[in-house]
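Changelog note: in this version the structure field was regenerated for every chain. One regenerated record is shown below for reference.
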Amino acid sequence: MKNYPIFTSSLLISIVVLFFSIFFTTPKYKTESIIYMQEPEAGLSLSAGGFVSDLLGSSSFQSLNQLKEYFESESGAKELENFVDVETYFRSKEIDFISRFKPGFLNMKFSTYIKRNILKINILEESGSVRITTYGFSQDQSFRLNIVSLLMASNYFDRKQQLNSEITKVQKLCELYANSKNINLDEFGSKQIELIDENEVKEINSGYELLSKKASKYLEFCKISSVEGGKDNLKEFPLPTSTLKEINAESLKRAISKIFNSSVSSVTMADNLSIITEPVFPTEIESKNSLIKSLVTFFFSLMILSTVKIIFNLRKDLTP
């Protein structure tokens, strides 16, 4: 410590970091886009879907938060792997060692690497939109990653809408049957949790599959006494003929309209997603912030070395 003053040592370390950052760090390019999720139309929320409707959510702000969580999850990382070449984009030898993705190094997962280095999701609360920022080690990579991110966002909302539509259809078909038989739908709620048994759970491989199967089971539970052969395909479930006579015309109109809209929604793209700002092909290298990194390293080193020196001196004083 006496031969190497703390200030000089910290300065030397910060200079090394500055030199490495300027000359050895692989340059990055940045691409941004902004998307907006419109509020769902009134009346599309589910009231008899049990915990399913709570999981799906309804507000646009909630949906955007869920999208952010999806992008940062293992599921999002796996979907990204389906669209880009991980070896070329993130593990190339042309990328410096620190910036490169190294599977298993310090137990870092691919989703963690993406979150820290490649993809940033910022929710803009004032406008209710999301800024998607992607970083790549080439201009084309940065741009393509942003395009892929937009596709992933669209796919995410498509899956959510299709599941929502399926459950809404089940709900309305059950309501038609229940009305025709004067059954209280509230009585079904306590039995829904038992619709999928332990053996069936073992064969389910995703949350989407679980919720979809639960919806089908719920429909089967509703129609078990009215459909011959035990068919559980939504398309093969006929409207009870007695229902058309026993419920009023306005209720019937709303129910059938809901079923039709849900059927159409299940095969169409998510129509509530809008692109506010298109991704633009980057032309400039993103700043490396080398000076800032060097200053942070200097003060951090100064603090660490000072702490070590204090501890060393205290131990020396306490030693008899």
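Spot check on this record: The chain has one domain: 27-295. Residues 42-58, 225-249, 262-269 have pLDDT under 50 and may be disordered.
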